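::Encoded backbone::
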Amino acid sequence: MRKITMWFVATVAAVVLLFSYRTSTSGPGPLSRPAANAPGIVSGPGAVPSGAAEPSGLTGATVVNGTVEQTRWGPVQVQLTISANKITEVKALQVPDGNRHDIEINSYAVPQLRAEVIAAQGANIDAVTGATVTSDGYIRSVQAALDSAHFTG
């Protein structure tokens, strides 16, 4: 009777472990991501209460976060800095990084996307070959940031 009980407990434990095992293709879990930065204007004109000083180094610049775009490989979110009605900086706040393949792809795709947004001064850019999903999320987040800032380019 004791052998049967031990066998049963071992079998149940093995099945639980088997079903809870996460493969590299299953994507990141819900608790593996830091809290998202709130979309909208972070600092600059319209974000600083009247009478308050603007954060140092940002005089005349508007910093705005795009929305968090959920893609099949993970969330994508960008932050834009707009100065003198020009996009001067694009920063990726979140990109898929659930496995080595995601990290490898984004190591070349994100700098390309950043350069294209600055060159185009908007979200009307081409997707990076091999990083279509991330590119689509990046473009949507950039557009959301531009809409929040009422950017006319």
Remarks:
- The first helix runs from residue 2 to 20.
